Amino acid sequence: MALVPYEEGGGWAARQLHSPSATFRFASRTIRLQQDWRRLGVAAVVWDAAVVLCAYLEMEGIDLRDRSVIELGAGTGLLGIVVTLLAQGSCSCLTGTREPAGVRALYSTCCRARVTITDRAAALEFLESNVQANLPPELRPRAVVKELTWGKDLDNFPPGAFDFVLGADIVYLEETFVELLQTLEHLCSERTVILLACRIRYERDLKFLKMLREHFSVSEVHYDPSKDVHIYKAQRGSHKDDF
Q1: Which of 100, 178, 198, 207 is deepest in the core (most CB within 10 A)?
Q2: Does a structural domain hold residue 66?
Q3: Mutual orientation of helices 78-86 and 48-59 as an angle, nearest 10°?
Q4: d(CA 181, CA 62)
């Protein structure tokens, strides 16, 4: 979310962050993302947490069809792109490949956008370009790139209207914790499932999890030791959803 420099160490990982592009394979598609560390910092590179959360959603077979999903701090857009691809079976008009032109013209009205991909204003043009480049034309109406600065103009988003709220490596700046929590509370209903993929780098990251537990029921559902990334699931109160 924040457009600030961030130090992640050296070696191969650092070279990957500074590479102008990154390529992944999810949902039976090759995804090629542009990166721009020099211009946008952390918002314009792919972090391991996003890769791990994408793999988790795909491998666990979590049903995203006909679900309303919002991603916070989307950065390059990898997670939002993968979610849109995984959810493509939610509308019958998207399951075929040889529809006549008249049917294709209905995509924009039949397939209402179900994936909202958000970040701060300065990152939106970059984010939008990656999303458009990696979604086939028939799926683009299902994904909307939208500005969201945590804690601000939340009325632009219907309260409690989302089935899933996703975030990958968005817990690292302590000064944003209150606004992030406020945003989560606004977006979530009793049925909403929050999935946060995090690398716990500092003691302050644990502080946010403690804050989150004061308002949500939180559990760790996955850990990737090779990338040192945890995935936490959170829901309001004691309500629990098995996806």
Answers
A1: 198
A2: yes
A3: 10
A4: 24
Other beta carbons within 10 angstroms of residue 123's beta carbon come to: 26
Structural domain span for residue 215: 47-236
Split into its structural domains, the chain has a count of: 1
In a domain, 186, yes or no: yes
| CATH code for the domain in which residue 208 is found | 3.40.50.150
- Tens digits of residue pLDDT in 165-204: 999 999 988 999 999 999 999 999 999 999 999 998 888 8
Quick one: tokens of 153?
């103009």
Q: Distance from CA of residue 30 to its chain's centroid?
A: 18
Plot region of 211 (φ>0 → left; ψ -120 to 50 → alpha; else → beta): alpha
Query: pLDDT grade, residue 15 (50/70/90)?
Result: low
Q: What is the pTM of this model?
A: 0.84
Closest CA to 113 of 94, 97, 126: 94
